[in-house]
Predict the 3D structure of the following.
Amino acid sequence: MNISLQRKKGSQSLPDLSKALPEKGLKRSDSTVKLDALPEFLADNEFLLDGHRPELNSIPECVKSAFFLHTETCNIWTHFAGCVGVVILAIHYLLTESQNWHQSLSFAVFFAGAFICMGCSTVYHTLICHSEPYARFWAKMDYCGIVVLIVASFAPWVHFGFYCDSSNLKLFYLGSAFLCGMAAMFVVAADRFRGGEYRVLRAVVFIVLGLTGLGPGLHYIFSHDMWPHFYFYSWLIIMAVLYISGGIIYAVRIPERLWPGKFDIWCQSHQILHICVMLGVLTCYHGASKLAHYRIEVLNECPDI
Ligand SMILES: [Zn+2]
């Protein structure tokens, strides 16, 4: 059953039913409300007009609500599926593909980053309707998870891009990515930059952080034979295009901005961002695993490493 609780604008006679939801004994995990019945902290996308969960003030109710259709259902399940997929991919790769411990380590860092990102996102989208403190805390975790994924994606690429180079060079690039990631976290997790009005700023921070990969990327491509290394590099470009496209779509909120109310449940911008992130993770994995295979098994470079 889907009970639509609506608070008409300007109506004095109707109580704000969303405020009554936390009362004990009320099972509201399958309820949805219209945008104008939401508390301010949940109403951060004015183009999604209906199908919102009310404030639930209960973790079990928030979890149960994941099994009903509302504005966050698809966001919850896309990244939950991503988490499961990453675990399966990690087990497969680390047990059957990896040739040595440093290959395992560099890919484990990447898999862990992807898991943390999509795991935090799943929890965030599940618990955002609990209460304002939960929404605020898990939004920060969600943003930090994206930063972790971006920085962790550097690990296999830097390791195998500079496979035969000194450890200092790898440490320099990984350390730089780590420091840039810390700086990005400092911005996206700051209280003053939370809220929908800073959506563009956050997207820009994520995109700029991702673009710091241009440094080691260009170094890698120009310090090796252009071919076939450009083949591997092209996967990085595809990954960047996916992340940047997702970031822009998230920032401008298309398609719901163009047709408000038509994408409340399906195909809203945030869901497109999630799909872009998942495809970006797959692209990163595919390119990095091909590069690792090429350098270790085809070229058989630096067997002492
Ligand atoms: Zn999300």
